[in-house]
Write a structure and sequence with these properties.
six-stranded mixed β-sheet, two-stranded antiparallel sheet, 2 domains, binds flavin-adenine dinucleotide, FAD/NAD(P)-binding domain, alpha/beta, 6 helices, single chain
């Protein structure tokens, strides 16, 4: 896949190349909307959070990735069991007992590879994807109510250190725990 040039305007800008960002960018791009996906770290990048739950099956199928996941060699997972801090074990919870469909087998994934798979799929479906590209700011203007500003542009720092302002209609904040927009709007509660 060749690296695209970053345009001056996208309908949708997705921030963060984790599972949320990769999935959102893939689905939006597939529908024909011009989409930019940026991730501040180099892709692939290390991340914790590798144990999938059964319902992940359906979005992976929708994205056309389920056969790739089945071929991946990742450890399959058919149940969960919890252990308390004192070592007491809960009864195992077998997914198939509660839902007999194919989603009852899920996976313990390597997050660096899993997230890259979604990032690459977004690119295949038409999103322009840039890693080592950090969101610096989201420029907004007043919306219908004061607490509903409308995104007009994002300011990003690209891999070569250049700051670039990209116009947009919609920003999807998929920055995970950083919750960039919630921080900017003072909505974070700890
Ligand atoms: C210790 C631990 C164990 C966990 N175990 C599990 C588990 O077993 N199973 C499970 O399902 N979940 C687990 N989780 C939760 C899981 O990690 C998260 O739910 C998941 O990573 C959220 O995905 P996301 O795409 O929303 O965010 P993330 O995966 O965090 O992705 C956000 C991305 O945004 C990027 N980013 C942030 N700020 C910017 C910026 N300004 N500009 C550009 N990019 C930016 C980050 O670099 C990051 O790559 C665990 C979490 C922790 C902390």
């Amino acid at each position: 896949m060749s690296t695209p040039n970053m345009k001056d305007f996208y309908d949708c800008v997705v921030i963060g190349g984790g599972p949320a960002g990769g999935t959102a960018a893939a689905i939006v791009a597939e529908s024909g909307v011009s989409t930019l996906l940026i991730e501040r770290d180099p892709v692939p990048r290390f991340h914790v959070g590798e144990s999938l739950m059964p319902e992940c099956y359906w979005p992976l199928e929708r994205l056309g990735l389920i056969d790739q996941v089945k071929r991946s060699g990742w450890q399959t997972k058919k149940s969960v069991q919890f252990v308390t801090h004192t070592g007491k074990e809960s009864a195992p919870f077998f997914f198939r007992k509660h839902d007999e469909r194919e989603c009852s087998t899920t996976w313990q994934v390597e997050r660096s590879e899993f997230d890259k798979m979604l990032y690459d799929r977004a690119s295949e479906l038409g999103a322009d994807c840039f890693d080592r590209t950090r969101l610096i700011d989201v420029q907004t203007e007043a919306g219908e109510t004061p607490d509903q500003p409308v995104a007009r542009a994002v300011v990003v720092k690209t891999a070569d250190g250049t700051e670039k302002t990209i116009g947009c209609k919609v920003v999807v904040d998929a920055t995970g725990q950083q919750a960039f927009l919630a921080g900017k709007m003072g909505l974070k509660e700890i």
